[in-house]
Design a protein that fits this description.
With about 290 residues, the chain is of the alpha+beta class. The protein is built from four helices and eight strands.
Length: about 290
């Protein structure tokens, strides 16, 4: 024993059993509390893990929604593009239709203008022929006593008229027959200004082409054709003679006498090439080339 052990203040007090028991109990409670707290903490610490595990599910849903939104956007863009293409096609078609309509109107206007011009020319020609007949009639009435049908053996006598259908030789022969047969074969074909066959003619084009069948070259226009041969009386016509309307040298129409008081000519765009009696449109004069 220490030499100070007998001094009270220097001894370590003894702990009683009860005190130790209390302290043990308190320690056990603390440990229990810590255990519970640890368990609770562990449980609480586990919750974020559970929430973290749910995040991929939420992310997948968002990805699916984003994909659907992207598809919808792409479809909308495709629809807009298709509509734009349709609108462009419709605009192009409308523009072409408008251009076609304008072209059709232009052609119709040109055709109308041409028809009106031809009608005016025909009216002027008819008026001129009427004036020519009016001028010719007095001289025909005075006559020269020529017997009608002088070469054809016709009937009648006295003063002849220049428009008689019983004048001259009625039967064509030789080169005249070739010309007559040719012009008769063209009857029914179209009248086209400036045409010389084979499917269409104008008046002087038909006459020129007819004489070309016998290797006779005539001038191209009616004015020159009216002076291409010898002037003959309308009361003494022969098949193959060239008839003209207007004055010699300034005639506006020609045709071919085919005998029997008939002529063949390319009259106008309405009638084409026709065979008519002299009385249909009495000529002003005639020339003989053969």
């Amino acid at each position: 024993m220490s030499h100070t052990a007998h001094i009270r203040s220097h001894r370590k007090p003894r702990r009683s059993a009860s005190t130790l028991a209390v302290r043990a109990g308190v320690a056990g409670g603390v440990l229990s509390t810590l255990a519970v707290a640890g368990a609770s903490g562990s449980a609480n610490a586990a919750e974020p893990v559970t929430q973290t595990l749910e995040l991929p599910t939420l992310t997948a849903d968002l990805a699916a929604q984003a994909a659907q939104s992207a598809d919808a956007t792409e479809q909308a863009a495709a629809n807009y593009q298709l509509q734009a293409e349709r609108d462009a096609a419709a605009a192009k078609a409308a523009k072409k239709a408008e251009a076609d309509l304008a072209e059709a109107k232009k052609k119709a206007a040109e055709a109308k203008k041409k028809a009106e011009e031809e009608a005016r020319k025909e009216a002027a020609a008819r008026a001129s022929r009427t004036a020519a007949r009016t001028t010719l009639s007095p001289s025909a009435d005075t006559g020269t006593g020529t017997v009608l049908g002088g070469n054809g053996g016709g009937t009648g006598g006295g003063a002849g008229t220049s428009t008689s259908t019983d004048t001259g030789t009625s039967t064509a022969t030789g080169s005249a027959a070739t010309i007559v047969n040719f012009v008769k074969s063209q009857v029914g074909k179209a009248y086209v200004p400036g045409a010389t066959g084979p499917s269409a003619y104008d008046c002087s084009g038909l006459v020129q082409t007819a004489f070309r069948q016998i290797n006779v070259s005539l001038p191209r226009v009616s004015q020159d054709q009216s002076t291409a041969g010898t002037q003959v009386s309308l009361s003494n016509l022969q098949p193959g003679d060239i008839l003209y309307w207007g004055s010699a040298g300034s005639a506006y129409h020609v045709a071919v006498y085919v005998g029997g008081g008939m002529f063949v000519g390319a009259q106008n765009s309405s009638t084409g090439v026709v065979e008519r009696p002299l009385s249909y449109d009495p000529p002003t004069g005639a020339v003989r080339v053969l």
